[in-house]
Amino acid sequence: MTVLLGLPGLRSSRPGADQQRRLADAYGRVAADLRLSLTDRCNLRCTYCMPAEGLDWMDRSELLDDDEIVRLVRIGTERLGITTVRLTGGEPLLRRGLEGLVARLAALEPSPVLALTTNGIGLAGRAEALRAAGLNRINVSLDTLNPDTFAELTRRRRHADVLAGIRAARAAGLDPVKINAVLMRGVNDHEAPDMLRWALDEGVQLRFIEQMPLDAQHGWRRADMVTAAETLARLRTAFSLVVDPAHAAARGSAPAELFRVVGTDRTVGVIASVTQPFCGSCDRVRLTADGQIRTCLFAREESDLRLLLRGGADDATIADAWVTAVAGKQPGHGIDDPSFLQPDRPMSAIGG
Ligand code: SAM
Ligand code: SF4
């Protein structure tokens, strides 16, 4: 709907205050953090994510193009209270023209905080341009300090590229640089203290994520998962960690529980998605690379915004569909329910 501004004859498609809505659900949560997948493709093959041969990638025509993405994010920020947009995938650095897309998203008004989750390959040559384009935050995934273990875990010999990417992100002034690590029993779980020592030296913030049942191969077994409690116990063999009351009070909807590393001014995080779910304070909503709204990583239903976009729907209609989708968000991921079923889409096609 167009809105009349104060001047006669001057019209704007920007919504008025009466059209500002929030993405609220039936459990009192409000989604303000959009996880936006830019591609399902990847140049690594992490064993906890996808099989060695890769997956049947989406056809290019199925992916939202840059204009469609910018329009949806504009609707989200202008009308629906989206304040943060995290670009992810698959591997978002594989998206052609990413810097240009970041610049277009950064130019929106209101402008969202822009974050990127990446495996870091190719980041060394692009961190500065991404920062200049308007990227505010970055998370780089790194599960090991050992190049051979990296090759075993990701099935590619690219460890040095990731380290170079992390350093480039720091040099470009992205701060904090957060490192996401998934521990696998008998593969890299013994490295937790060494990784924390490395993170303290590098000046990056390390967070350990519990492995979730989101792999394309459906090979996840709860008994094999390294729990956050185990990770903390390992870290405490080498470090003294305390819950920082200030961090705890400020945690809000953040998935990571932060611990202060005694003797330093730094923290380490654990994301206990499985053993201590934080669904009750979740403020996230996901948009897949092919334009489907998902209210949870584990959702079994999706809402098709691409169909509306390509069918000529106006902004208000798309906003309505988005509001309706989030209103139906489930209270929790239900991994512990006997009836739990892993979603058909793997993590790489949802956007982690
Ligand atoms: N390719 C990019 C990367 O690896 O950072 C972005 C996408 S990836 C799906 C996002 C995050 O999800 C990564 O930190 C990765 O380690 C994590 N991830 C992937 N599969 C996972 C699983 N089954 N359980 C927990 N985390 C997982
Ligand atoms: Fe690629 Fe990220 Fe999945 Fe690893 S976790 S295979 S880097 S999408």
UniProtKB/TrEMBL annotation:
S-adenosyl-L-methionine binds at Y48, G90, S141, M212. Pathway: Cofactor biosynthesis; molybdopterin biosynthesis. Residues 26-244 form the Radical SAM core domain. It is an enzyme of class 4 (lyase). One of its GO terms (biological process) is Mo-molybdopterin cofactor biosynthetic process. PROSITE patterns: MOAA_NIFB_PQQE, RADICAL_SAM. Pfam families: Mob_synth_C, Radical_SAM. [4Fe-4S] cluster 2 binds at C279, C282, C296. The keyword Kinase does not apply. [4Fe-4S] cluster 1 binds at C42, C46, C49. Residues 333-352 are annotated as: Disordered. The keyword tRNA processing does not apply. Binds 2 [4Fe-4S] clusters. Binds 1 [4Fe-4S] cluster coordinated with 3 cysteines and an exchangeable S-adenosyl-L-methionine and 1 [4Fe-4S] cluster coordinated with 3 cysteines and the GTP-derived substrate. Gene3D superfamilies: Aldolase class I (3.20.20.70). Monomer and homodimer. Catalyzes the cyclization of GTP to (8S)-3',8-cyclo-7,8-dihydroguanosine 5'-triphosphate. This is GTP 3',8-cyclase. The lineage of its organism: Bacteria, Bacillati, Actinomycetota, Actinomycetes, Propionibacteriales.
